[in-house]
Amino acid sequence: MPGVTAETGFWEAAGVQDVSSSVHSQRADYDATYDYDYDFSYDTWDDGEDSQSSDPPSSLSTVKIFSSSVDGDPHFVVQLPKLLQNLCFTVDGRANDVLRLLEDPQQGIIVDGHLMGAPPRLGVEDRSRTYFDQLIISSVTGGSGDIMITLSLDAVVVEGEGRESLPTNQQGWVRRQGVTVTVDNHQSCWVELVKGVSFLVLFHHYKQPSYLQRAHLGFYITDGRGLSESTQGLLGQFQHADFSLITVKDDLQGAHPPNKQVIARGILRWSSQQMAVTLQEKTLKDSVQKRHQAKCWLVPKAEVQTLLGHSYESYVVNQV
After folding, report:
1. Phi, psi at residue 236, to the nearest 5°?
2. pLDDT value at position 307?
3. Where is each Inter-alpha-trypsin inhibitor heavy chain C-terminal domain found (predicted)?
């Protein structure tokens, strides 16, 4: 992009030319304390593009629908494979827990997220509220070293054949061993690991936060086609899951009190399990476009563990 200047990187400072990585940075003209929501617009990335180009590469389409995400306190959204419908559920985490969001043993990819505590809502003080304030993405590249990307509200640190830090209030990008990390001026970071595996991390800030709001991170699987069938984790396990969904008429459901938020009721089935779900309108970010109202099948809080197939504790790892 015009006006981008290369900063001195780790290898240049050491007097060594690093042909496997490239770092570029530019000061962004925006207020980093405001919670933005932009339409993202990137051209496709030709794999043969020169890694020394001053334009950040990306293989992300402007019309692509994300496969799954976790954002807020924390709310999970999964696009059901084959059905092309959204499934929404909430996990009440514990402050300072580190959750395994995704693990693909075949690709050597792991994503962990650290939870910070937030004040409870009035009237439901016994229910915990948490946000992600740190994410760590690790990838076995098969080269001379692995890649580890640590994302916080202030910086994105890329380690592997050296260490580079990209402030979140600047535009910049790093490419190492085929892994590309791009911080743009939309309060977001794109991570492209291998063909068919790309993530988006949003940095949420508020100028005048309410007592409930906390600056936090949102994690989105923008492309999961390259993840293997053995992928697990709170989000990863849904990548290749086989679900079916049957819509049920209200008059066949028994005595349900009227609820204007419920558009329809259904039965979600997978393996030998099934549960009742309700279709509701939610504000979702499921593409590179702005958040919008969309339909989502909501899992009752009491049924979330059944959906996951494991207890909350089974997703907690010892450390980031």
Report:
1. -60, -30
2. 96
3. 106-299
CA 317 – CA 202 distance, rounded (Å): 23
Q: Report the SS3 class of residue 116.
A: strand
* Rounded Cα–Cα distance for residues 289 and 274 (Å): 33
CA–CA gap between residue 249 and residue 100 (Å, rounded): 37
Query: Which are the contacts of 52, defined by CB distance < 8 A and separation ≥ 6?
Result: 22
Q: For residue 229, give both structure tokens.
A: 């069938």
Which tokens sit at 25?
């940075």
Structure tokens at 20: 């496997």
- The pTM score is 0.79
Which residues have C-beta within 8 Å of that of residue 155, sequence separation ≥ 6? 165, 166, 167, 168
Residues in the chain: 320
Burial status of residue 130 (CB atoms within 10 A of its CB: 0-12, 13-18, 19 or more):
buried
How confident is the model over 213-227, as pLDDT tens digits? Answer: 889 999 999 999 999
Whether residue 69 contacts residue 217, with contact meaning beta carbons closer than 8 Å, is answered with: no
CB 204 within 8 A of CB 189: no
- What is the pLDDT at residue 210? 85
Handedness of CA 290, 130, 121, 209 (dihedral sign): negative
Q: How far is CA 56 from CA 194, 239, 300, in A?
A: 16, 27, 42
Q: Give the CA-trace dihedral at 83, 112, 316, 142, to 10 degrees.
A: 90
